[in-house]
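The material for today's practical consists of a large collection of protein records. Backbone structure tokens are a discrete shorthand for how the chain folds in space. An example says more than a description, so a record of this kind follows:
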Amino acid sequence: MHKKLKGTGVAIITPFHNEGSIDFKSFEQIINFQISNNVDYLVFLGTTGEAVTINKDERDAIISFAVETVNKRVPVVIGTGGNNTQQVVTIMKDTDFTGVDAVLSVSPFYNKPQQDGIYNHYKSVAGVSPVPVILYNVPGRTGSNIEAETTLKIAHEISNVIAIKEASKNLDQISRIIKERPKEFLVISGDDLFTIPMLAIGGDGVISVTANAFPAEFSAMVKYGLNGDFGKAREIHLGLLDMIQAAFADGSPSGIKAALAIKKLCKNTVRLPLIKVNRTTYNRISNIIETLDNEPLLK
């Protein structure tokens, strides 16, 4: 599983119909679009999938649909996290993990736990998980940071935790984790703009938002980086720079859903409290996509 989760993972959006129900026809189209463009694995029910607005019945339906549609073509990762440890443990116990390869579990948000609390939270979650666990550190959303020492303690002591998605934007911290991690522990970029720097210091890939709309380009960029060809990787990165910035200008996943709507892969619908990007941002994204269509980054 360590090898299978090295490269480009995509944090898949959850497409909705205009009235807000899940659009499974578009979901299938998006999944096949990713796989046909050479991504390495897919992540469902994460931040980009608007997991916090998905109810239990919808969650079960999404997992079942994802597993069936992917059909073992690439690994399937499911987001399962929260700020109530016992509730997360209960969700884990109640989930059918047939066909699921790993869990992405965000660090507890809002509570601002101490580092020992974060350690014991993940010890509890990993203890009931039937599949490997990926830590997710995103201080900008959770309000707290998993410090390098805590990540390393988890990595060395909890065998079922095999990776971290790092979105702290702290290269000192990330470098320390990479330097002192167990041999097979993966360090994955959780920020599209930090993918190249993280690959350069020994990171193992990315779980990307922008790759929803540009899977082939992101996959090629990461492969070049992993192979040490940073000239080609940098060229693609800079070519995607405007798109990455525009996709986050009015928040995520609002931006990437606008991009996918422009590409006619889904409707431009998000669930409250998120709203659509404003018209200026939408037009900016549309113009960037038109430019990239006319001047492809991959020859």
In short: The chain has one domain: 7-238. The beta strands are 7-11, 41-44, 76-79, 102-106, 133-137, 161-166, 186-189, 205-208.
